[in-house]
C-alpha cells in the first residue's frame, strides 16, 4: 500500500537491492484483501501490510521482510528505520490508501510494468494511482547506479528517467508521471474518472 510507511520501508530495501518484485495493491477496498485475510488466518495474524510471499516464505512484519530480503538476496544494506516513511506518508496523507470508487472491478489480463525507485516523488505519484486503481504491477527497481538504467535507455531511445510505465495489455509506453497518471485514469477507471472522485 503506497501510503503505508511500513510498506515504504520494504520498497526502500527493494530499491537498494535492485530487485524486480511483483506488487499486489492492498489498499482498503482492494480485491486482494480476501486473499490477504486467508494468508493472515493461516499464519495466526491480523490482516496487515506489508505482506511478503516469497516461495514458501510468508511474512507480515516490515522488519522481518527487510531482514529476509537482505539475507536472501544479499547486500550490505541496513534495514531502514520507519521514521522517514511516516514523514513521506504525512505529506501525501490519504493518497494510495483507499481503492477509488471508479476502479474497474477486475484487474487487467497482464500486470503493468513500472520502472521506479523509492524516494522519487514522481514515481510515488504513479504508485499512488496504481494503488488507488487496484492495479497489480511488476516493480523494476531502477535507482541511481542500477543496471536497469541501461534498459531504460534502450526502451526510451536514450533517457534513463523514472518513472517509466509499460502496459503489456495495450502496448503503451510512457515516461512522464503526469502522462502516466492520465493514462492510468483514462484506461483503468470507469468512464476515465479522476481518482478521488465520488
From TrEMBL:
It comes from the Eukaryota. The lineage of its organism: Eukaryota, Haptista, Haptophyta, Prymnesiophyceae, Isochrysidales. Transmembrane segments: none annotated. Residues 1-77, 110-192 form the GST N-terminal domain. PANTHER family: THIOREDOXIN FAMILY PROTEIN (PTHR45288:SF1). InterPro entries: Glutathione_S-Trfase_N, Thioredoxin-like_sf. This is GST N-terminal domain-containing protein. It comes from Emiliania huxleyi (strain CCMP1516). SUPFAM superfamilies: Thioredoxin-like. Pfam families: GST_N_3.
Amino acid at each position: 500500500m503506497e501510503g503505508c510507511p511500513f510498506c515504504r520501508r520494504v520498497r526502500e530495501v527493494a530499491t537498494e537491492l535492485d530487485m524486480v518484485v511483483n506488487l499486489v495493491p492492498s489498499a482498503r477496498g482492494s480485491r486482494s484483501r480476501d486473499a490477504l485475510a486467508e494468508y493472515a488466518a493461516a499464519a495466526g495474524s491480523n490482516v496487515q501490510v506489508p505482506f511478503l510471499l516469497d516461495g514458501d516464505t510468508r511474512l507480515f512484519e516490515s522488519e522481518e521482510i527487510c531482514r529476509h530480503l537482505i539475507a536472501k538476496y544479499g547486500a550490505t544494506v541496513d534495514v531502514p528505520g520507519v521514521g522517514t516513511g511516516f514523514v513521506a506518508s504525512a505529506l501525501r496523507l490519504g493518497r494510495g490508501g483507499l481503492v477509488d470508487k471508479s476502479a474497474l472491478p477486475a484487474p487487467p489480463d497482464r500486470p503493468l510494468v513500472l520502472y521506479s525507485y523509492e524516494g522519487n516523488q514522481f514515481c510515488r505519484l504513479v504508485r499512488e494511482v496504481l494503488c488507488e486503481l487496484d492495479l497489480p504491477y511488476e516493480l523494476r527497481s531502477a535507482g541511481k547506479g542500477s543496471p536497469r538504467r541501461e534498459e531504460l535507455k534502450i526502451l526510451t531511445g536514450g533517457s534513463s528517467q523514472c518513472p517509466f510505465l509499460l502496459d503489456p495489455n495495450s502496448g503503451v509506453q510512457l515516461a512522464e508521471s503526469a502522462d502516466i497518471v492520465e493514462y492510468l485514469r483514462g484506461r483503468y477507471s470507469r468512464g476515465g474518472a479522476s481518482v478521488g472522485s465520488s
